[in-house]
Amino acid sequence: FGTRGELRRVFLVEDLVDSIKFAVLMWILTYVGAFFNGLTLIILGLIAAFTCPIVYEKHQAQIDHYVALVNNQVKDVVGKIQAKVPGMKRKAE
User: Fold this and answer.
1) What is the residue-wise DSSP string for 21-69?
2) Collapsing DSSP states into helix, strand and coil, what is residue 91?
3) Cβ–Cβ contacts within 10 Å for residue 76, how many?
4) Which one of 10, 36, 57, 67 has the largest count of C-beta atoms within 10 Å of its C-beta?
5) pTM for this model (two decimals)
């Protein structure tokens, strides 16, 4: 029931922030799908699946540093948006 419940929650806009994130992701994927062939996406996915772990092992400290910076920036922006828009406070998880 987990996945079905999550999809229901996103589609019925029970949490506005998650629903907006999902809508933006779907909008971006329409452009990716229009630009690439399905087989091309599978090939790129396989290449990334075998390349990313090796790159991460070699540059783990730098990648973790930049991921933490991006994560903090995203949390700040989401916090500011939630503070300004009424009804967007996150429920306690």
Assistant:
1) HHHHHHHHHHHHHHHS-HHHHHHHHHHHHHHHHHHHHHTHHHHHHHHHH
2) coil
3) 10
4) 10
5) 0.52
